[in-house]
Every structure is written in structure tokens, then in C-alpha cells.
Amino acid sequence: MSDALRPYLGKRDFSVTSEPKGGAASKGKLRFVIQKHAASHLHYDFRLELDGTLKSWAVPKGPSLDSADKRMAVHVEDHPLDYGSFEGEIPKGQYGGGSVIVWDNGTWEPVGDPRAGYAAGKLKFRLKGKKLTGGWTLVRMHGRATERQEPWLLIKERDEAARPATEYSIVEAEQGSVLSNRTIPNPPAKAAKKASAKAASKVGAKITSKTVAKAAPPPAWPAAAKKAALPATFSPQLATLAAEAPEDDGWSYEIKFDGYRLLARIDGDDVRLFTRNGNDWSARMKSLVDAVRALGIGSAWLDGEIVVAGGNGAPDFNLLQNAFDSSRTDTIQYYFFDLPYYGGHDLRAVPLGERRALLRSLLDATPHDGRIRFSEDFDNADAKELLRNACRMRLEGVIGKRADSPYVSRRSPAWIKLKCTQRQEFVIGGYTDPKGSRTGIGSLLLGIHDEAGALHFAGGVGSGFDQASLAAVKKALTAVDSDKRPFVEKPPGKAHWVEPKLVAEVSFGEWTPDGHIRHAVFHGLRIDKPAKRIIREQATLTKTVEAAAEADAVPPAKNPPKAKAAKTATAAAPVRARARGMGADATVAGVRISHPSRVIDTSTGITKLDVVDYYLEVARLILPHLKKRPVSLVRAPAGIEGQLFFQKHAAALKIPDLKELDRSIAPELEPMIEVDSFTTLIGAAQANVIEFHTWNATTKDTTRPDRIVFDLDPGEGVAWPQIQEGTELTRSLLEQLGLTSFLKTSGGKGLHVVAPITPKGGWDEVKALSKAIVEHMATIIPQRFAAKSGPKNRLGRIFVDYLRNGFGATTVCAWSARARPGLGVSVPCEWSELGTLTGGAHWTIRNVHERIEDEADAWRDYAKTKQTTAKAMKMLGVDPGA
Prior knowledge:
Structural class: alpha+beta
Number of strands: 46
Shape: globular
Strand order of the largest sheet: 1-2-3-4-9-8-7-6
């Protein structure tokens, strides 16, 4: 080993640098580490343990999960094994001077003989890390080796862990250390002026320094603008379908484009185009990226819609889809209509009219080709006449927006859509055979999801196809062929089933009383909307729109009151508006809501109706966690500052369809209860329920728990980074014990770590194991963890609460709100998100909408995780019979 490390030792002065000298021995399993290293150039050091050292490569761009990306990896000197945990600063003047963090680590398994593969220049292996998993290959580039360093390529294998670079960049999304959560910022983008000039040369536009100066930030920002860094991700505001136009003043109207929603993120010369669901489509529209870059705006998020014009000049959805299918996207036009971020400022709280005025001035000040356009509005126009004209032109409809409204990343009544015909998206669940001379398919069988996520048959569509679309749709259907019927109901006739993944855009004449559509016409497949979010669109009544939109309006800036008064006025605004729009009571999904304007949380002004609306929106996500489990309810009839009631039984609760469980579960107690339907969930919110807590066992067998829950409860003096560290340590220990775990926020102060288990052992066994795990942690790291719950025991430490694993104990359900100031929400998370969380109440019912809209399921592998406690009990010496 001394010979192998001689180059490493010879390049370093260990009286100056804190890098390890070596000497650590192998721990059995082969380890790997990737260190992000900001030396003269930012790069990633990829290291694999082999024969007592870390074989090392410098990867300038870092690893890519796209199998088509072949990342350059320069072979460098071997490093000692204890270098794998090195983080810190290498002093300037030393070899590799700069910052180092451990970006990823874990174990690796060679495919075949690793020594032979390494020597031959083709090393295949599998990684099991915190960020990187699956198969990889390192290949030496023959004919390019130099005496000093060999160029290799790092390539991701095609497997379940691979992801297209157009959708995801792991080095952009995952920037923190897996040991300390420290980050090393990526290199700053070039100046906007250079970016504009570079882009201009590509698209033929002439951008001068004078032109770029016109697009500089205004000398006086709007009063509500706030200085803020440009966020890496952003979710758009969505419009509410309205039955008719509002009658009050203050609305402006734009054409409803028949295209795809697209958001542009501009950071110098780094321009990205994202769909409404966060998919990066930049690589699919390179010329459009160049056109946006040529604007020379510098730093912004722009909101808009992309379309392709048909023969009559109106947007044509089929032509837009064909442009993507043929990879001929140069005909796409980009209409911008909003500016939520610009020039280092957050403009979301700025009234819409001011944001659009600024957007127009930016576009007017910069020469650009005809593909970039401003979406004109019709201020104070007669909405009914405008809609009639739009329909005559065969447009889809119009969009109405309140001029005084802020920008919110959720569906808002301050933006409404008025349609010429009934038209929406449907999930394709199957198809019928063609008849006569027709080829491909006969009709598509369509469905929509209910509030609990079940797919219901909604009719079929056989019109609107041509030969090209029939062939394209049939090809897409074949790729998702299935033997299982996806609908709750069985459609009439013979059908071929498909996985419910494809989405069709369909217009139709009407809904029948049994929930089917008539006179349907197919317009195309939607590739920008996830199937699981497709529900029946319900038009909102005018009075409700007006009241709710007024509640969302930006308060006037004139004569601002004092801070305390302003807070009270803002909190009361939704209450007053909703009271006017809905009267004393309200009706939500068929459930009468009494006292909807009652303030539940005085610190935020959140009302009872806000809570009901939240559970209405989150129903499809929370119900799978509630169903088939005994539940306890936390009620706050007088608000969260008043007395709270923790109820395990129905008692006098008047909640519709609330299910009472068999008394044999706990014979000495009143019957337990279960919330298993949408109606019961909303009814519980009407009964002032804020929190839902569930057992760790299902109603199928309440004597055997099917999960272990650890609640990391911080004592006084524990900072948030310490909680994050403690949570990661808990996960690491569980992995060593053979238990895969999942993460969620608590909605309160701490975090929850949940390990699903096969329900074999009883409550006493699982509680004994969880206690042994916590005691082991407190023994090994007493300065971090406490095994006892008292305040004195937890001072400066974390109590990992294992008591939730006993019979009858409960834990707050995933997606439940909490009866605490701000009404935090318990949200399932990816482990990779741990470093980005800001607290146990990172999400509240005020800001969780963006998370709800996210199509990714952080716990997608939870149900597939099959594991027992046997290994953990053996390692910790837990006797099941003790």
C-alpha cells in the first residue's frame, strides 16, 4: 500500500493540510465515495475502494443518470481509505487547494473480477449510495492516454435508476453533503450581457449593450417587491374553471391558448424551460431556449404558454403535438403573460397589473424574433362578448384575472377560465377494436379520478382521429398494455385494457346523469400532465369566484397601517370575503360547513373553511394512509388556542359515514373508529377535526403492527441541523440492522422515521425492539440522543420517541395538519430532501399546495418494502419471549 500511495503522499505537505495521511483498514464491504471539490475548477472526485486504497477519477461535470451521457473521468492518484470521510478546506497553495465535501458515499459491488476489469480498462459495478444507485461502468479511452493521466468515461447503465438528462440533473438537484449538509455553490452564471451577445449570434438578433441596458432593473421597484435569490424550482399559478364571468370590476381577460404551459428560468446564459410539473424540456426546444436567452433579461422566472398557429392563425393543439412528435419545434411560438421573479426580486406579492406592465416593458425593450410574444389582455372588456368572439374564431376560450391579485403557486380563484365548449383531460384506461376500414383502434375508453384516487369510467371517444393520430395513439397504447381493468366499473362491450398512464385532451357536448360524456371529440395526447391528477372539472359559481378572488387580492398599498394592525387586517380579509360570498354556512362537496369564517389560528388568520379546503385538496393523498387503520382525532372547536379534544371513539360526533370498528380490538374500551371515505374526511373537518392520528397496525389484524415509528423530539437547545444529523444517524443505524426506512416531517418540531415491517410479531416484541434501538443510540452517542423523555433528560439532546410503538399508541398521519400555530403539515419526503428541510413544519396548509401538485411520490417504494425484524432483534439481543 505504501507504493500505491506514494504519489498521493508526495504531493502533500501534512504540516499544512488536514488531509489524512492514511492508515485506515478496510471494513469488509467495498466502499465508494464521491467528493465535490472546488479547486481551480469545480469537479467531482469519484473513488472506489480496491486492494486497500481508493482508486480515483476526477469527473469535471459530475455523474449523470442519463445512460446516453458519457462523462469524462480523468484517472488520478490513489487515495487512502480514510480520505473517504474527509471534508474541509485544503489550504491555498497546496495540491488541490479549495473546499471539499462528501457529496455521496456507500458501498459498491463489482460485476465480474474487479482487478481484471480495472487493468483492462472496463470496470463494471453496482452502487448502493445515498444518491447514486444501480449499474455503472468506467471505460478507459484507448489511444488517448498520456504519461501523466488517463482519460476514462463514467457511464450509467440502463436500469431502474437511470433518468433522462432532459428531466433531471442529479448534480443540480442534490448539492449537499451526505455527512454535514454543507454545500459548495455551483459556478455563477456569466453576465447577462455576455449571455445576450452569445445567444444573439445564434438566432441572428443584434443585441447591443445599449439594448441590454434598456432591460435593466427599473430604478424604483414596486412597493411589494422583495429582494430574493432566484429559486431553482417554481410551480405555476393555475386557473379555476368558472361557470360564467364575474360581474364585479377589476378583471382583465386574455385569450386561452390551446397549447402547453411553460415556465422559463433565466440565470445569465443558463436558460431552462420547464413544464407545469417541473419537467425540463430545454433539450427538446433548443432554438426556443436560444430565443429566450437573446432577450438579455439577466435573471427571471417567466410564465407563459407555447403554441403552434394553424391555418387560420389560431393556436392548433394537434399541430403543437405533431411538432414534438416530429422533433420540428422551430414553429413553436412562446406567449409570456406573467413575471413572478425578476432582477433579484420576488414579485409574487406585486399586483398582477404591475407585474404585467414590467413584463411588457422588458419585452418591448429587447429586439426578438416573432417566436417570443406578449400575451395581450383586454382590460375591463365585456367578458361575455369577448368569449363569444373567441368562440367564433374557434379558440378554446378566455382567461380572466384580477388586476390586484398576487401570484400564488396553486389553483386560485383570482384566475378563471371560461371555455367555449366543455373540454378537459381524461385518463385512457382501454380501447376497443376498429370496425370496417378503420385501423389501429375503435374508441378510447376514458376515465376520471374521484377524490380518493379511484378511476371511474367516463365514456369513450372515437371521433377526431386521422390515420396518423390513429397509428400514434395505438403505438402509445401498446407500450402500456395491461391485463387488469383500471376502472372501478366495467365498461360495456369487449375492450383491451391499458395501464392508466396516458392522458387525452377531449371536447364533448355534455355530461350525462350517470357521469359519462356525450358527443366527444379527440384532440390529442397530453404529455405535460400526469394521469393521476385528472379529475372532473367542476365550474365554480360566479358569486363564489368573486368572493374568493377578493380574498386573494393584494391589499392596497396606500396609507399602510401599523404592523400589528396590518397583520390583523390581512388575516381577517378572507373571513369577510367568504362571509359575503357564502353567507353564514357553506357547502363543500355536499357537506354543510357551519361557521366557515371562524378563525382557527389567530397567528395566521386561517379559518375553518381553510382547513376544510385543505382536506378537500389533499383527500386523494391522505385517505390511503387513513384507510384500514384505527384513528384518533384531535378537535379544536374553539380554535387551536382553546381546549383541544383527543377522541378515539365516535361518542356524540356527527360525522357522516364514520365507521365504528369491532369492539374485540379493545374489549375494555368503546369501539375504535376509522376514516375511510372522502365524505367522512370532509365531515370530520366540519366537526372541527384538525389532526388525524393512526395506529401502527391495520384493521385486518390489530394484534400485529406493520410498521415501527421513531419520532425525533428535540429538547431545549437543539438546533435544526442537529435534528437533521440525528435523523440521518437513525436511518443509518436502521440500515445496519437490515431495516429500510422512510422520512416524513412531523408538522411540529421534529421528524418521523418510519420502517414498514411484515406483521408477524406482537406489540410487546416491536416495542421492545424499538426501545433497544433508541437505548443503543443513546449509549453510542449520548451527547446527541436521550433514551428518556423528561425535559431534563432531553436538554441539548434528541429523544427518539419509541413509545408510539405500543398497543393503542398513535402517530400523526401523513398529510395531516397539526393543531399548532401556522398549522404545519406532516409530509412524506425523499431522504435526499432531508438537507433542504427548514423544520418539522416546513410545509403548512398555506404553502403545501405546491407539494400536493408535485406528481412524484416520495414513498413510492413503501408498499413494496418487505422486511422483518429478525435481523435487528438478533443483532441487538432482543428476546421476543422476555
